[in-house]
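Hello,

Our lab assistant flagged a job as stuck in the queue for most of the afternoon. It eventually completed. Since we weren't sure the result was trustworthy after the delay, we are filing this so someone can double-check. Below is the sequence as submitted and the structure that was eventually returned. Let us know if re-running is recommended.
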Amino acid sequence: MEDLRKINSMQLYYLWRNLAISLLCIGVVMGGSHMLPYYMAPVLSLFLCAILYTMLWNNRVQSVNGCMVIVETMLYILICYTFISVIMVVIEVLDLYHFPNEIIFFNDPYLPSLILLPTSLVVTLFALFFKNSMPSYRHFRSEYGNVKERGYFGFISSKETDFQLKNLAIIFAVLTCIIWWYYLNEYVNVNRNGRDWYIFLWIVIIMVILDEIYFMIRYYNLYLDLLEHNEIITPEELRDITARTYLRFYVICGEYIYVDRNAFDRLNQVDGVYDSPFITKRTVNGIPTTEVRQIIEKMTGQKGGELRFFFGRPLAGVDKHTILRYFYFLDGDISEYKDMGMPGEWIHFDEIKKLYSEHPTKMASNALNDLSRLSTIILTERIFDENGNRKNRIKSYKGSFTLADVRNTKIDLQDNKWIKISQFNSDTRFFKIKKFLRELSGSGSQRQYEKKQR
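-- returned structure --
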């Protein structure tokens, strides 16, 4: 499982590229509004919105460019900027309120930085605090799993996305303060000079360029560090890499599960954690169920058990590598299965659940994430219906489940439907309003598209 710590070098490139394109949009809006007729400013920003939306859609279809939170944030920035600019012009035309000439795009000069930068700051702060609710993040998480399920790159991408958002927020805050202070205290609209254009235009473009260079250096140094520790997969290696399928089995008997208390977590490089000892790999792309059964029967030395598929995912950035999880249910009593062919012991599921709740760091990352997915799906289906409404009116009801429930469930554990419902349901504040807005914005049609893809 060492490949979980491998990072596709293109993923680092996409981290920089998505940020670079987003920052470039700021520069284009600023420079384009200066070079083109001023009334073309909203047209230019809408054109850039179309480009960013195309990027988001292509990524959603192809799932190749990683997490697109930064691109989506810039899309919202440009939409808000355009909307505010147009609304201010409408208010001005209707003679409801008179704004300074410099923020109305029908006037000369039009200074877009006065609107664009404060808008960018506010939207970026919202993205920073509500990143987990953004459609691009939800899609990426449903495609490749949560942070730990995505392997080592999951840690890096999550950390770097937060860092990029904080960096943008700081830059927009500094530029907003500089430009508005200059506008209120130094700017004279009668006689515009070179210093005015330097403050309102060039200082923003220079900051954008410097920030792009900084992140280019940052990710190049990160690439060299990962390369030194043999944690990089290059595009050349990906082309030549052999397809691999990793298999994880959870062997269950009654309410007991067979666990190794002293396993090694290859993702976090930690020893002495709880994990299933039944882990193997095959250098093939996909394995027939009959062969999977033969593998687990040979590993455990026990035949006649019930094999049940749990779920599977490709590794983020390494499409030829897939991790499949299975349950193997044995009938009878654990006293009949003393020799399981692997180091470990039978542990009651209540002890595992207690460990999961109180000491999650004592569990291997994959085991922890698999149990989290299992409990989330089963309990969500028990508490909510498919529309996200509570079946039980008592909000304090959390529910519980046993391994017998796992064996008897008819839920498709591969499907992310109940994961999404757990994240957005009637317990969510303003659920009905948010649900209406999502349907109005086209999220419903997108769900239909994803359903057809599955």
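-- support follow-up --
The delay was a queue issue, not a problem with the job. The result is valid. Residues 246 and 281 are 4 Å apart (CA to CA). The first helix runs from residue 9 to 35.
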